């Protein structure tokens, strides 16, 4: 076999490993991004523990197909960036936030689809996924609710104790 075919097989194996190791994978269309815009996006993904890579569509398609997933065949055309994420929501959220912060990016970059929990998510589902806060934020909100309830309960008990004390 030629070195070129062996090199492509290694890249497909690398992509398969990254897909398997990621909690979510987002495929995005990027078109006419400047070097500065791509660098800013890469830095945002890196800060969120995600990896932004551009592979040939045929290699990504082959990796998904070898994993038994054929839903991405129609989305893997044109300019496609692949983002491997350590959590479920950050990849989609970063794309949405980048477009919101810089409206000029709206016609340059957009999430096409995603792979989450061994299933395909279309563009509408990726948009919904981007609106979900991260796991850490959800846990903090839940703990805040618990703390609020406990604080109110303690306040009521303290008020009762003060009322009894004042009555005596």
Report the structural category.
Answer: alpha+beta
Strand content: 15-25%
Contiguous helical run count: 6
Uncertain regions spanning at least 5 consecutive residues: none
- Give the strand line-up of the largest sheet: 2-3-1-4-5
Whole-Å distance between the termini? 95 Å
Topology pattern, helix = H, strand = E: HEHEHEHEEHH
Please give the largest β-sheet. 5 strands, antiparallel
Helix share bin = 55-70%
What report would you give on this structure?
With 168 residues, the protein is of the alpha+beta class. Strands 2-3-1-4-5 form a five-stranded antiparallel sheet. Strand 4 and strand 5 form a beta hairpin. Helix 1 packs across helix 3 and helix 4 crosses helix 5. The protein is elongated. The termini are far apart. The relative contact order is 0.15.
Task: Name a few traits of the molecule.
elongated, single chain, alpha+beta, 6 helices, 168 residues
What would a concise description of this structure say?
This protein has a five-stranded antiparallel beta sheet. 57% of the residues lie in helices and 17% in strands.
Topology (SSEs and partners):
Blueprint: H1 3-21, E1 24-30, H2 35-47, E2 50-53, H3 57-66, E3 80-85, H4 90-101, E4 109-116, E5 119-121, H5 123-131, H6 135-167
Antiparallel strand pairs: 1-3, 1-4, 2-3, 4-5
Helix pairs in contact: 1-3, 4-5
């Amino acid at each position: 076999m030629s070195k070129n075919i062996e090199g492509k097989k290694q890249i497909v194996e690398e992509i398969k490993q990254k897909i398997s190791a990621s909690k979510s994978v987002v495929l995005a269309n990027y078109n006419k991004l400047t070097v500065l815009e791509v660098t800013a996006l890469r830095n945002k993904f890196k800060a969120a523990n995600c990896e932004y890579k551009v592979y040939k569509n045929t290699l990504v398609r082959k990796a998904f197909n070898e994993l038994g997933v054929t839903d991405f065949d129609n989305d893997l055309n044109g300019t496609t960036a692949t983002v491997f994420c350590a959590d479920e929501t950050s990849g989609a959220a970063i794309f949405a936030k980048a477009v919101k912060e810089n409206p000029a990016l709206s016609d340059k970059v957009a999430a096409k689809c995603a792979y989450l929990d061994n299933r395909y998510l279309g563009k509408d589902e990726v948009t919904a996924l981007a609106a979900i806060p991260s796991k850490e934020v959800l846990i903090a909100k839940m703990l805040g609710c618990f703390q609020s309830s406990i604080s109110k309960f303690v306040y009521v008990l303290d008020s009762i104790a003060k009322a009894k004390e004042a009555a005596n």
